[in-house]
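Researcher: Sequence recovery benchmark, item below. Answer with residues only.
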């Protein structure tokens, strides 16, 4: 119970700041779409999220926040009084999905954020970051840990879902799970207790306990760090595991019993193999996959979420730090092999260490390193929706799904960089951005 002292001016001031910022419109939500509101989007070209080609002269008929009908303009009957949105000179696509984000991340200096910024401040910043991602077309995010902000992502997700603030749809992993010695703040005196960026477990039963706790607190999925540190030796990556195979198996088993999927941070090596053997749903990064890893991932239907652009941005820094080596030099051939051998790919940028709203060049590298433009777009629409278990909600244009869509002026199947210039964003039938008027 809070004492009078706890509820004094300092706490009341923090609460007042949060309320005032929201009330003044920093993150104010638009009014919910009326239940009887009809809209018709005229699409000059339409990519439905599942095919390899564009359809011409299509109409998306929307009632409230859902798609009612999709089809050729001459066939779809637009109700009298419906709002007509003319995108007849644009290409319309399903709202994009980024399956690897960190909205609580603001650059690489996470230690400063953890030590100097309150949960309230970090949550407001996370909201601003999520809105930046929405503004460039990502109507759905799969957010993979709060970097020490405990369960603040649950509150952010709930506030968006309830219409208190505007933002993308979110699945959240809450705290993340690591073993002792993994993702830690380094360089501090051992006598000085410092906050942890993730929750620590060091036994199978502790892993089960933490999964139960995170699910009870609102986690949509579980994120584990099965390998973290790495170094280069004789021209190859050496990636020690963090957890034992038994610890990983227990975490994954408990998550599945709770109906939650598991995301595994791993570059390669034994830690990645432990995750694949345990049956996680996705490998994050996977920059040093070997043929055995790839074969098992294909057999088990495990997704790769590659974060290619992140490592391209880090290339110069890595070269200096690691004596002429970089993660990027491994991620390209690893990704090429995965694509060629049929690993499922879901778009994920890893945005957070680099600025939110700047992650769309990921598409360019996916195509440059072996994917067709259509498959890269599907990775950020129907395939990512499948990974999230939201294939009945988002990811393609089908009746009953949310009216989430974006538009670009050109043809992204001819030039994938068109997705770096999204001009129109709609989420749930509400227009968030329109530069095509």
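Model:
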């Amino acid at each position: 119970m809070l004492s009078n002292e706890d509820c004094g001016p300092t706490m009341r001031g923090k609460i007042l700041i949060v309320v005032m910022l929201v009330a003044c419109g920093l993150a104010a939500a638009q009014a919910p779409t009326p239940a009887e509101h009809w809209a018709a989007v005229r699409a000059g070209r339409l990519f439905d999220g599942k095919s390899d080609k564009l359809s011409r002269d299509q109409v998306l008929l929307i009632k409230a926040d859902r798609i009612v009908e999709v089809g050729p303009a001459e066939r779809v009957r637009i109700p009298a009084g419906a709002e007509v949105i003319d995108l007849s000179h644009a290409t319309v696509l399903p709202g994009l999905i980024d399956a690897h984000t960190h909205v609580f991340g603001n650059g690489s200096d996470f230690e400063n954020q953890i030590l100097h910024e309150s949960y309230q401040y970090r949550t407001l910043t996370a909201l601003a970051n999520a809105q930046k991602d929405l503004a460039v077309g990502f109507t759905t995010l799969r957010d993979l840990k709060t970097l020490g902000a405990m369960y603040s992502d649950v509150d952010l997700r709930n506030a968006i879902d309830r219409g208190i603030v505007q933002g993308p749809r979110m699945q959240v992993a809450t705290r993340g799970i690591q073993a002792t010695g993994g993702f830690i703040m380094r360089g501090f005196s051992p006598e000085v207790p410092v906050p942890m960026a993730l929750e620590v477990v060091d036994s199978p039963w502790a892993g089960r306990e933490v999964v139960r706790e995170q699910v009870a607190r609102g986690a949509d999925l579980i994120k584990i760090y099965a390998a973290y540190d790495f170094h280069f030796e004789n021209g190859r990556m050496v990636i020690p595991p963090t957890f034992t195979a038994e610890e990983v198996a227990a975490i994954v088993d408990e998550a599945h019993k709770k109906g939650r999927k598991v995301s595994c941070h791993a570059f390669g090596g034994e830690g990645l193999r432990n995750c694949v053997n345990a049956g996680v749903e996705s490998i994050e990064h996977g920059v040093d996959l070997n043929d055995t890893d790839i074969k098992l991932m294909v057999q088990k239907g495990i997704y790769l979420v590659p974060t290619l652009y992140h490592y391209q941005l880090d290339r110069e820094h890595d070269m200096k730090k690691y004596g002429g080596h970089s993660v990027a030099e491994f991620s390209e051939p690893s990704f090429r092999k995965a694509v060629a051998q049929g690993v499922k790919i879901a778009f994920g940028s890893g945005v957070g260490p680099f600025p939110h709203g700047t992650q769309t060049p990921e598409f360019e590298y996916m195509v440059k390193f072996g994917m067709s433009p259509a498959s890269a777009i599907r990775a950020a629409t129907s395939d990512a929706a499948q990974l999230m278990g939201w294939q009945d909600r988002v990811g393609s244009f089908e009746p009953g799904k949310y009216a989430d869509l974006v538009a670009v002026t050109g043809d992204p199947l001819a030039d994938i960089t068109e997705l770096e210039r999204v001009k129109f964003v709609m989420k749930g039938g509400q227009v968030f951005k329109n530069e095509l008027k």
